[in-house]
Write a structure and sequence with these properties.
The complex is a heterodimer of chains A (258) and B (332). With 258 residues, chain A is mostly helical. Chain A is built from eleven helices and no strands. The radius of gyration of chain B is 23 Å and the shape is elongated. The chains are: A mainly alpha (258), B alpha/beta (332).
Chain lengths: 258, 332
C-alpha cells in the first residue's frame, strides 16, 4: 500500500503550484488590485466618518486592514482550491489521479501550494497596508500569531474550494460560488464594519461565518482589538479548518476523472 | 499468469451502456489492440482498467490486482498515454517528466537518467526546457508518450497514441512501441481507429462496437475469416436484384450491400470480375466501378457489424451526445 501521507508527493505538487504561481506574474499583480483599492478608496473614504463600534483612537483604516487581509486569504484560497477544475479541463488531473499517490497526499499538496500562494499575497497586502498607515505598532509576537491565523484561514478555504471543485464539471459554477458563497462569507465576516452594532439577523449570520473568527483573530494580532478572545477565535477556526480539509479530501478522493 | 484479466466488465452512463459485459484475458508481454469507431467504448474500457473510473459491474485484475479494491497496487504497475492532452502547459517538457517521476517516487539519479533517455527517444532533447504551451501538437503528443514510459510500467495503456500525428512521426512511434514491447516485454493495450495501426502493431485485436467485442483474434485470422479476396462494386441502380443473382453463385462466399455498393468475398478475385460483369450485364445493370483487394481489418469490421467505420462514426456522435446528457443529468 502506498503511504497515506507521502512528503515527497506533497512536495512535488507544491513545487508545481509554486512554478505556476511565479510564472503567472500578471495574475499576482491582478490579484492585488482589488484589496489595494478597497484599502485606498473605501479605507480613505470611510475614515472621515464616525463608525459606531470602533473603539476611540482606532482609525477606520486600521480597522479595515486586517479585514482586507482576510479577504485576500479567502479569495486567493478559494480560487486555488477551485482551480483544480482547470486541471480537469486541461487533462492534467488525469495524470495526477492515475499515479500511485494517496488522494490525501494529493489534497495536502494542493493545500500546501494554495496556502503558500495565499500567504505571499497576504504579505504583500500587509506591507501595502503598513505603508498606508493601516497597521501600526505591530509586535513580533502579533505578527507570528497572525501568520498562524493566516495559515488556518487559507487551509480552510482551499479545502472548501476543493470540495466545491469535486462537484463541478467545469468553470461555469465558479460564478455561482463567487456570488453565493465567497461574497457572503466576506461581507458577513466583519471585515468591513464592526458586528456588535449590527441588526440581530446579521449578527447571527456573522457568528456562523467561520471567516468572522479569522478576521477577528487577525485584528487581535495586528491592531489589538477584537470581539472574541484569541483562544476562542483560534479554537473555532482550527475546528473549521480540520473539517474543511477532511471534507475536501473525502470529496476529492471520490471524484472520477472522465 | 495473465497480465490482464477482465470479467463481465460493464460501465453505464445513465441509460447508455458504454461498455457491455466484456471478457478478456491478455498474457504478459502481449501487444493487444482495441479497434473500433469513436464511442465504441474503448476509452471507457481503458479508464476502468487504469482506475480512473469505476466499473458499474464486473471486475478486472491487472498484474493480479483488483482495479477497484487495490487501486494503488494497480496504479503502481501501469502507465498510460491518454487520448486527450494531459500535460501541464505552464511547465516545461522536462518539468512535466520530472513531476511524473517524483510522483512515482523515483530518486534523483533515476529521474535524471530516465528523463534524458525518453527525451532522446522522442527527439525532444533540445526542446526540453521550453514551456509545453509553446510545443506543436505533435511535440506534445510525443512528450506524453515519453512520459508514459518514464517509470518502467509492467502494463502500458496507449489511448489512440498516434491520433493527429503526421505519417512520419506515426511510423516512428509505431517502431518504438513495437521495439519496447519486444525488448522490455511490456504488456500493452492500445486503442485505435486506424486499421493499419492495429494490423501493423498488434498480436491480437478485439473489434469493439456498441460496448461489446464483436470479434477477437490475431489480425491474420480475423482477415482470413472474412474470405480470400474482396471485390467491391459501385452500382447506381437495382442493387437488390444483382445481390440476389450473385448470391446464388457457388463461388461467392459472402455478399453484403451498403450505400449502393456490393462487397463480395471470393477466391481468386481477378478471375471472378469478368463473370460478375457479365451477370450484371445480363440483368441490365450498369456497374460504375469495380475494386479488388486483399481483405483489411476494415473489411473485418464491416463483416462483423454490417457497417463501415465511417458510417459508425456518424452514429457515434449521437451516442456521445446522449452520453454527455446522461452524465449531466446524473450530476444534478
Amino acid at each position: 500500500m502506498s503511504k497515506l501521507i507521502s512528503i515527497s508527493a506533497i512536495y512535488t505538487i507544491w513545487l508545481r503550484e509554486m512554478k505556476r504561481f511565479i510564472r503567472a506574474k500578471s495574475r499576482i499583480v491582478g490579484s492585488l488590485g482589488m484589496p489595494f483599492f478597497f484599502l485606498a478608496i473605501i479605507g480613505s473614504g470611510f475614515s472621515r466618518m464616525q463608525m459606531m463600534g470602533i473603539p476611540a483612537g482606532i482609525d477606520y483604516m486600521n480597522f479595515l486592514a486586517p479585514g482586507i487581509i482576510g479577504m485576500v486569504l479567502l479569495f486567493a484560497s478559494m480560487a486555488m482550491g477551485i482551480s483544480v477544475i482547470w486541471d480537469r479541463q486541461f487533462g492534467f488531473l488525469k495524470e495526477i489521479m492515475v499515479t500511485p499517490v494517496s488522494r490525501t497526499s494529493i489534497v495536502l499538496g494542493r493545500i500546501a501550494g494554495g496556502v503558500t500562494t495565499a500567504l505571499i499575497q497576504s504579505f504583500l497586502i500587509l506591507i501595502l497596508a503598513t505603508l498606508m498607515g493601516g497597521i501600526k505598532g505591530i509586535t513580533i509576537l502579533g505578527f507570528m500569531l497572525s501568520v498562524v491565523f493566516m495559515i488556518l484561514i487559507s487551509a480552510s478555504f482551499v479545502g472548501l474550494g476543493l470540495a466545491f471543485a469535486s462537484k463541478m464539471e467545469d468553470m461555469h459554477g465558479f460564478q455561482l460560488v463567487m456570488n453565493f458563497v465567497i461574497m457572503p462569507l466576506f461581507f458577513l465576516s466583519g471585515a468591513l464594519f464592526p458586528l456588535d452594532k449590527m441588526p440581530a439577523w446579521i449578527q447571527y449570520l456573522a457568528y456562523i461565518d467561520p471567516l468572522t473568527y479569522g478576521v477577528d483573530g487577525l485584528r487581535n494580532c495586528l491592531i489589538g482589538i477584537s470581539e472574541f478572545s484569541l483562544l476562542a477565535d483560534f479554537g473555532v477556526l482550527s475546528a473549521f479548518c480540520v473539517a474543511m480539509v477532511v471534507l475536501g479530501t473525502y470529496l476529492f478522493g471520490k471524484t472520477e476523472v472522465d | 499468469m495473465a497480465a490482464i484479466n477482465v470479467k463481465n466488465l460493464t460501465r453505464k452512463y445513465g441509460e447508455l451502456v458504454a461498455v457491455d459485459s466484456i471478457n478478456l484475458e491478455i498474457r504478459e508481454g502481449e501487444l493487444f489492440g482495441l479497434l473500433g469507431p469513436n464511442g465504441a467504448g474503448k476509452t471507457t474500457t481503458l479508464k476502468m482498467l487504469s482506475t480512473l473510473i469505476n466499473p458499474t459491474s464486473g471486475s478486472a485484475r491487472i498484474c493480479d490486482h483488483n482495479v477497484t479494491k487495490e487501486q494503488d497496487a494497480v496504479r503502481r504497475c501501469i502507465g498510460i498515454v491518454f487520448q486527450d492532452p494531459s500535460l501541464d502547459t505552464k511547465l516545461t517538457g522536462r518539468e512535466n517528466l520530472d513531476f511524473h517521476a517524483r510522483m512515482y517516487g523515483m530518486d534523483k539519479k533515476a529521474r535524471d537518467e530516465k528523463i534524458s533517455e525518453v527525451l532522446e527517444l522522442v527527439e525532444l532533447t533540445d526542446k526540453a526546457d521550453i514551456l509545453v504551451e509553446d510545443y506543436s501538437g505533435g511535440m506534445q503528443r510525443r512528450l506524453e508518450i515519453a512520459r508514459g514510459l518514464m517509470h518502467y510500467p509492467k502494463v502500458l495503456f496507449l489511448d489512440e497514441p498516434t491520433l493527429g500525428l503526421d505519417a512520419q512521426t506515426r511510423r516512428h512511434i509505431w517502431d518504438y512501441i513495437k521495439n519496447l514491447n519486444d525488448r522490455m516485454k511490456v504488456t500493452m493495450i492500445l486503442t485505435t481507429h486506424y486499421m493499419e495501426e492495429a494490423d501493423y502493431l498488434c498480436d491480437r485485436v478485439a473489434i469493439m462496437d456498441h460496448g461489446k467485442f464483436v470479434a477477437l483474434d490475431t489480425p491474420e485470422k480475423l482477415k482470413e475469416s472474412v474470405g480470400s479476396d474482396i471485390v467491391s462494386l459501385q452500382i447506381n441502380e437495382n442493387g437488390v436484384a444483382l445481390k440476389e443473382k450473385l448470391g446464388q453463385q457457388k463461388w461467392v462466399e459472402d455478399i453484403k450491400e451498403h450505400n449502393g455498393s456490393l462487397t463480395l468475398s471470393v477466391k481468386k478475385g481477378d478471375e471472378k470480375i469478368p463473370k460478375i460483369v457479365r451477370i450484371a450485364e445480363d440483368l441490365g445493370i450498369r456497374i460504375a466501378s469495380v475494386n479488388l483487394r486483399k481483405p483489411t481489418l476494415e473489411d473485418v469490421f464491416l463483416y462483423y457489424t454490417g457497417r463501415t467505420m465511417r458510417a459508425q462514426e456518424a452514429d457515434a456522435k449521437d451516442r456521445m451526445r446522449l452520453r454527455v446528457r446522461a452524465r449531466m443529468g446524473g450530476r444534478r
